[in-house]
Amino acid sequence: MYCIIGANGFLGSYILKSILNKTQERVVACCRDISLVGDTLKDERITWKNLDICDFDAVNSFCNEYKSEDKKIVYLAAYHNPDLVEKNPRTAWNTNVTALSFFLNAMENVSAFYYPSSDSVYGNSIDGKVFKEDDKTNPVNTYGKQKALAEKIVNTYGYQVVRYPFLIGTSLLSAKKHFYDSIVENLKFGDGMDMFSDSYRSTISFKQAADYLVDLIEMGDKHPIVNISSDKALSKYDVGIIIAEKLGVDKNLVRAIKVEDSEGIFVAKRASSTIMDNKLLKSIFKLEEISLEI
Fold first, then answer.
1. Of 23, 78, 160, 260, which is most buried, counting CB atoms within 10 Å of its CB?
2. Torsion of CA 23, 102, 64, 38, to 10 degrees
3. Domains of the chain with bracketed CATH
């Protein structure tokens, strides 16, 4: 049985789809409000459960309900937005650190536990630095620091972490668009899109991110940390050009802007570029290359 904590987000929806496509297992999917789960995330093999991970009584009840069953857990629940984390560090700490630690200690009979993390734990890729899994972390904001600590908690408990770069792809959620959908809509209607050209990430799609994770779980991989990313560092402008080419629209509709000229957009400091080494991932799956697929 799979158990997905925080399953109704962009990545969670793709993970659910990947599990259904790649396995015959049933899934218990949790989120704070299942009334918001659209029909696209419903399937006879998925049991949806209301769960607020900061409600420890509810967490204990949930863990006791599934105590006897062998579980493969993907823990996605988090206070994600770096700007909101910066504004509300105590609330973020309760979600990203305290609740995670409580859940780890409450849940029994776990055969696999994977914690999806972020390239934000690395910090800046100074002079084109490509970060490997065992490099020292140096996050530049509170969100990255909390994710780095959460990783240590998960690893110390004996479980696995995967680190993701910027993820992109069409939303599977009926009520919520992703950045990708906005780009497509603007380009199709000829409105164009301003996109950063001076900040680089090892971008992959939500589908790739989900499929590699489910494959790691199914093969029983036990590396403490695995970077799941593409070979090539791309700016968001580069991604926009790729999308324009896919749509067959004028690439000039994608307009390059610079982060350094966009002060005031973000509250929390961001790493200018974070580039990830994916050699471990390629060695695990015996791959020659990994490119963004959208």
1. 78
2. -50
3. 1-294 (3.40.50.720)
